[in-house]
Write a structure and sequence with these properties.
The protein is mainly alpha-helical and 93 residues long. It has one domain. 80% of the residues lie in helices and 0% in strands. α1 crosses α2. The termini are far apart. The mean pLDDT is 83.
């Protein structure tokens, strides 16, 4: 058995988790996928990943609210808010 074949069930479970959290929280999958990869790199135990991903999704919601406030503020902050929204939407920070 190849490593890719062995990891397939884990990837499928992670994709299901990403879709569930994205749907429940109303956030895009791309930034959640990036967060999930960072959690893996930080060697977060598998049993803690759902809770941590949920917490990070809440942080994304707070960022979204802050971006909305910045867009309503001074003109020089509007472009920063737009750039931040684009980066977050693509899963980058």
């Amino acid at each position: 058995m190849h490593l890719a074949d062995a990891l397939k069930p884990l990837r499928e479970d992670h994709e299901k988790l990403l879709a569930l959290v994205a749907r429940e929280k109303g956030v895009a999958v791309a930034p959640l996928r990036t967060i999930l990869m960072k959690l893996g790199e930080a060697r977060i135990p598998d049993e803690d990943i759902p809770k941590r991903l949920d917490e990070k999704a809440d942080e994304l919601l707070k960022l979204r609210e802050e971006i909305v406030r910045l867009r309503l503020g001074p003109a020089e902050l509007v472009s920063f808010a737009q750039q931040a929204q684009i980066l977050i939407g693509h899963g980058r920070s």
